[in-house]
Amino acid sequence: MYIYIPMILFTLCFLVIQYNAKGKLKKFVAFILTITPGTLVAAFRYDNGADYLMYSNMFKILNSGIEYLSYSTKKLEWGFKYLVVISQRICSEQWFTFGVIAFVILALTFKACKDNSDDYFLSIILFFVSGLYFDSFNGIRQYIAMGIFMCGIKHIIQKDLKRYLLYCLI
């Protein structure tokens, strides 16, 4: 608990900086800073979440290059599989792969909240206090899919069915 409250507070402080930033580059850097605390906590967690060991073993199998022998990796979505493989090519440590996945989840979720919400700040607070952030430790593949889908919602609002369907296809 001692790590989660400061993480949320740092995220909210960076969110204020992001809100007040002027210029695309400064807004982008502030956005990256905003998702950094949650990414770091998710990256360095150890045995936190019901599916931690399952994903840990899956990463080891994919890193070994013999995933065709494992039934659990045959059912993986190709996008998730390549995200794991690419992240492990950069760094074979498990914390790095969990960090890359957390970064993707948070980037997609925060972007969707920014694009679709009338109150971005409140949306991010609700993301943490409702437990969605902590739930993302378990269902990492589902949260990536949810983030992609949520980013596509703005295209429904703009009546751009083709782009929305592209997001759904991804």
Low-confidence region ranges: none
The level of helicity is over 70%
Order of helices and strands: HHHHHHHHHH
Measured by DSSP, the beta-strand proportion falls in under 5%
Notes on the protein architecture:
The structure is a single chain. With 170 residues, the protein is mainly α. The protein has ten helices and no strands. Helix 1 packs antiparallel against helix 7, helix 2 (24-43) packs across helix 6 (94-116) and helix 9 (140-157) packs antiparallel against helix 10 (161-169). The longest helix has 23 residues, at 94-116. It is globular and about 45 Å long.
Keywords:
170 residues; mainly alpha; 77% helix
List the helices and strands and how they pair.
Layout: H1 4-20, H2 24-43, H3 52-64, H4 71-74, H5 78-90, H6 94-116, H7 120-129, H8 132-135, H9 140-157, H10 161-169
Helix pairs in contact: 1-2, 1-7, 2-6, 5-6, 6-9, 9-10
Structure described in brief:
By secondary structure, the chain is an all-alpha fold. It has ten helices and no strands.
